[in-house]
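We were asked to recover a plausible sequence for a given structure. The inputs and outputs are reproduced exactly as logged, with field labels preserved.

PROBLEM: sequence recovery
POSITIONS: 130
GIVEN STRUCTURE:
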């Protein structure tokens, strides 16, 4: 009886370690065609409008990176839009500054956060767009 329980436990542990690990979505550089395809497919899209020189963007990065691990966002598409280069995107979506994070469900913008760097509040703002 004990031997059977030990075997069952070992089989359970082996199954856990053999289970495929879910890969987190990766950040993609913003690309109008890829963004459009994700919208047409009805995907959840997270866009981080950032600038390399921006201290608020740097403060947001760990929280946004951690969100890629969230099970609710496992099928989301993550884009980094460079504030200094993607001027057409900024105009189209009326983005006033770097450190803006947008969430879309298909073509509809469902959440926007501007300059929020507190982890809990930023996380809640993004997840509110789901």
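RECOVERED SEQUENCE:
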């Amino acid at each position: 009886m004990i031997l059977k329980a030990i075997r069952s436990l070992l089989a359970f542990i082996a199954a856990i370690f053999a289970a495929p690990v879910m890969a987190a979505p990766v950040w993609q550089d913003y690309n109008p065609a890829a963004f459009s395809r994700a919208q047409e497919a009805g995907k959840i899209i997270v866009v981080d409008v950032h600038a390399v020189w921006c201290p608020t963007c740097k403060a947001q990065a760990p929280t946004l990176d951690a969100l890629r691990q969230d099970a609710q966002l496992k099928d989301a598409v993550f884009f980094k839009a460079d504030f200094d280069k993607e001027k057409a995107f900024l105009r189209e979506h009326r983005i006033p500054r770097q450190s803006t994070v947008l969430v879309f469900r298909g073509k509809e913008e469902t959440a926007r956060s501007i300059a929020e760097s507190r982890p809990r509040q930023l996380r809640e703002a993004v997840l509110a767009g789901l």
